[in-house]
Amino acid sequence: MKLLLLTTTLSLTIALHAQTSKTIDYLSPIKKYDLSKLWRADSIQTEGNGEKVPFPEPLGYIGSNYQRFYIHYITVTKDKNNPYVYHVYGKTKVKNNICSFKGTITITRAILDKVSDNPEYKQGSVTGDIVFKEDSTQSSSGVFRGKVETDFTLDKKGLLNYDALMAVADGFNNNQCSTTWTSYKTGKSQKCNWGDYRIPDSRNLDSGAGCVVINEKYIGNGWQTFVAAYGSSDKNTKKAQQFEETEWWK
After folding, report:
1. How many angstroms separate the first and last alpha carbons of the chain?
2. Would 110 disulfide with which of 14, 30, 31, 206, CB 3.0-4.6 Å?
3. For 64-109, how does the pLDDT look when each residue is reduced to its tens digit (9 = 90+)?
4. CB neighbourhood size of 42 (10 A)
5. How far apart are alpha carbons 6 and 31 in whole angstroms?
């Protein structure tokens, strides 16, 4: 029994070492950077070649029926006293209901990869705790609690940016947020996830490999214009694209 226990413990230790040996703990060094531009900026640079594209608007869902969920970060600012805390102000939208919110992202983990997709850059990621509180005086409001996983790059000058080096690859994603939304009024909770380009834990909703493909079962839950704009080509495509690009938070 002791031999079996020793063998099991040794195997677990080796497995854990294998999982962590490819990364470096970067929690302390990350303090010196301002991570706000990982969540709110005008544009991002793709493939490391200088090409810039508009900063992506997150895709999201709420509830077991995968109702489309919109969220926009209007401002993200680093706390003056705690270098791991970022203050977020923005708005959410479900159907026609728009709520403003304030909250924080608190960095709890940061790692740097030993191997990069591009030798010109180092790649890493941060994990943060999310607490976003919608205005309680507004209709159908509540609080979001969960986590965000965000990938970043460091160039040869040590400048930190949003990691879009593999933006052309199938299944590319960033800023993966997994939360639970709890209603102020009823106290009931629902899963609410969102992210850039893809949504975490959305296999039932999104069956696409290279890009998002919405399950026909859920298209009627707020995904009609998305499918018309990016999933098909018909007379409504241009109108749908214009709707998708509407700055609804203003």
Report:
1. 66
2. 30
3. 999 999 999 999 999 999 999 999 999 999 999 999 999 999 999 9
4. 8
5. 39
Q: Rounded distance, CA 214 to CA 231, Å? A: 8
Every domain of the chain and the residues it spans: 22-202
Secondary structure tally for the chain: helices H, strands E: 3, 13
Helix (H) or strand (E) holding 106: strand 97-113
Q: Which residues of 55-80 are buried (b: 16+ CB within 10 A; e: fewer)?
A: ebbbbbbbeeebbbbbbbbeebeeee
pTM, 2 dp: 0.89
pLDDT, tens digit (0-9, with 9 covering 90-100), for 105-128: 999 999 999 999 889 999 999 999
Token representation of residue 138: 């507004």
Collapsed DSSP state (helix, strand, coil) of residue 34: coil
Question: Rounded distance, CA 93 to CA 69, Å?
Answer: 6
Instruction: Give the separation between CA 192 and CA 178, rounded to whole angstroms.
Output: 7
